[in-house]
Amino acid sequence: MATTSIFVNLQISDIATTRSFWSALGYTFNEDFCSEQSVSLEIGPGIYAMLLTPDHFTTFTVRPVASGETEAILALGVESREEVDRIADAALAGGGAKAQDPQDHGWMYGRSFLDPDGHHWEVTYMDLSAAG
Question: Contact, 71 vs 59, CB < 8 A?
């Protein structure tokens, strides 16, 4: 099977706020795809979020752009419960908001937050060897 990358495109309101928020969570940006209108958040190998200012975002679609609604929940799988807490705590400290109460199912643990632009993110750790 061929390797596939994914680029999720999201509208943001402010480049500086976005850079500061995601940097505080420990993520980096691919500067080759950053400009005054967009930043390319590197989530993992081959996984990127293209974070675009409103004017730039609208150049990628002919449909109306949703605002203030949940259109998608973006989930990040991490390698430990501690990493879930680290990312969620950093998100809340850096200007994000709590989206849901923490979920602890023993083998699966997750927390969620809304980023400064209101996008809903889940951070989850799963221990599949302990799943029932």
Answer: no
Maximum distance among all alpha carbons in the chain? 48
Any idea what the CATH number is for the domain that residue 22 is in? Answer: 3.10.180.10
**Total domains present in the chain:** 1
Instruction: Decide: pTM greater than 0.85.
Output: yes
In a domain, 71, yes or no: yes
| Closest among 20, 44, 16 to 30, alpha carbons compared | 44
For residue range 66-120, what is the model confidence (pLDDT) as tens digits?
Answer: 877 888 899 999 999 999 999 999 999 999 999 999 999 999 999 999 999 999 9
State the burial class of residue 92 (Cβ atoms within 10 Å of its Cβ: 0-12, 13-18, 19+): middle
φ, ψ at 2 (rounded to 5°):
-70, 150
The parent domain of residue 14 ranges over 6-130
Name the pLDDT band for 65 (thresholds 50, 70, 90): confident
Q: What is the DSSP letter of 22?
A: H
